[in-house]
Amino acid sequence: MLLYLTGMWCCLYFLATLLMMTYKSQVFSYPRDYLVLDLTLLLLMGILEATRLYFGTKGNLMEAEVPLAASLVLTAGSALLSLYFLLWQTLVLWADVVLSATLLALHSLEAVLQVVAIASFVS
Fold it and tell me: Where do transmembrane segments lie in this chain (predicted)?
């Protein structure tokens, strides 16, 4: 259930962040190099999230440790990108903080539950 919720939130996050980057590039002086970097990292995050959710769902349904472990590793990478968008992107708006903090909380909860699931599948 949490994988489904996170998948929906990631879609909302991706679209909202893309729209906010468009807004920031029009209203503020957003350097082109940093805009390209932020857009590239957002695209990478979208690909990483789709792969992570695929492996997480597959591992959960099959009760297999390897796909869940792959999803756990990808969760760490996705959490780092969320942290980037929370703290280090060029222009951080209040909406960026709310969206990224919520995504980080979901990733943290998911990581804990993935570790518990892997431990239960092994034994």
Answer: 6-23, 35-55, 67-87, 99-122
